[in-house]
Amino acid sequence: MFHKESSLSHPANRNRVDAFVSGVAAESVAVASAQRKTFLAQRSGSSLVVNTMTGNPAYLEGKLSMTMTGTATDASRSFLMENPGILGLSAEDTEELTEVDSFKWGGLKFIRRQQNHQGLPVFGASVLVGVDDKNQVRIVTSGLRSQISVKPGETAISLKEARQIARKDLGEAVELRGGITHKTVLYPTQQGHVRVYHLTVPAETPLGDWEYFIDVQNGEIVDSYNSMKFHSFYFAPRARVYSENPEETPLTTVMLRDVKSPYNKLDGRYCKVINEDAPGAVVGSNYRFDFPPEDTHFDECQVYYAVEKVYQYFLDLGFRGFTVNNPYGKVNSGQLAANVHTGTKYDNAYYSSSTGQIYFGDGSYPGNPGGLRDLAKEFDVVAHEFTHAVIDEYHPAMFGSEGAALHEGYADYFACSLLNDPDLGEYVVPAPEKAGMIRNCDNDLKYSETSTESHDRGQAWAGACWHLRKKLGQEVADFLIFGSMLVLGTTSPTFKYAKDMLLAVDQSWCGGEYKATIQRIFETERGIPV
Description:
Blueprint: H1 17-21, H2 34-41, E1 47-50, E2 57-61, H3 72-82, H4 91-95, E3 98-105, E4 108-117, E5 120-131, E6 137-142, H5 159-170, E7 175-176, E8 181-189, E9 192-205, E10 208-215, E11 221-226, E12 238-242, E13 251-255, E14 271-275, E15 288-289, H6 298-317, E16 336-342, E17 349-352, E18 357-361, H7 379-394, H8 401-419, E19 423-424, E20 439-440, H9 454-472, H10 474-486, H11 495-510, H12 515-525
Parallel strand pairs: 12-15, 14-16, 16-18
Antiparallel strand pairs: 1-2, 2-6, 3-4, 4-5, 5-6, 7-9, 8-9, 9-10, 10-11, 12-13, 17-18, 19-20
């Protein structure tokens, strides 16, 4: 989501898991073990950083194995089977690690495995293993849990009853915009893991992708929160668009690349635009989408242009496309769907994980002096929501208040880095009624100075990333920051964990050249925990 939305204050936003994943109500676990010291001593130059809340490694990097036989998948599995104790698991635990994803980046093949216990997925617990072209394991990032205990008891609540409980909790006015999906998982609590129905409820009112975790034994809502993230050469048709926004750049004629033959609709290789107010735009006889800014079809052209540019930007960083976890992209060859004119005078933009699509409201200004202008006309708003979709492609259902804040911080940073402009939302926020922008990445906010609200806390992460960019340049910073997002080994990352992943990427790909700079900016200047 682009900025704060009233539905975020809905009572269904419990987010109780925060205390568990961030250790607010837990004691720290002692770190060192003789087994891990021996492991590192046998692998000169390797390093291991432990998550002090779980006692298990957050990451290992270096030459972690000799050349192994078989495929990269085989090598990753062999490594895990041979070193369960290093990762805080038993041999039986490793048998229940199931492959759920794989991708290539930075010269490595990454394989992600989900942790299961007694046949059920452990929510938020996975391990990511990176294997080089010699079939040697070079990096492991992990969110695995040790000694999982599950409350005994039989299932007493049916799935139908669980759906009714969730709908009732959302209120009598709830309106769905899609079917409720479900799976049974083990969910972490301070008392151990609980067997729950994990329901995803895509609602129009209150707007959100509501995640519910309902105890299968007694129907208790263990937790719930809103996972919606609000905020080649050939012939090509042309359109008039703003390269950034109506206030800062004039209308210019651009080619709309990758439009599918016969090139007459805004349906392309990377993007399909949906107009919620009217049938889609049709090209003119001169193969131009010529619409004035006040025409309903102008926003379609503007968003198509922006999505195509942002998609290419991320592809250049190593993005695999929306092919595995994005519900829309995986059945549409990696294409992203973008919706314009969402709602009625709606003052927001958002990414919906349940549909895999991005959405842009028209705003309520000037009729509402406190409202926003048309969000589809601001390039960085499109880039911000696109980034949420990128993160979700690799880390679906990333949760916790710090996970949500990192979602926003990464989205702010990449939207601004692409345009080489630290200001976000200058056009959509009318001045002088408001401050003239939504947020600014070129800030000095410390971690401790922010609230737990995701957009507020995310500014500290975006600010640290932007200052790293100022110090190292865009190319190096984008590589490190994108890599740190990619190799997150848990779906409940803290700022400390993400910062450690940044250091891990620097160590593995840059030989630790930027370690001191990263530590100074993220730890000393921003106060992100060491």
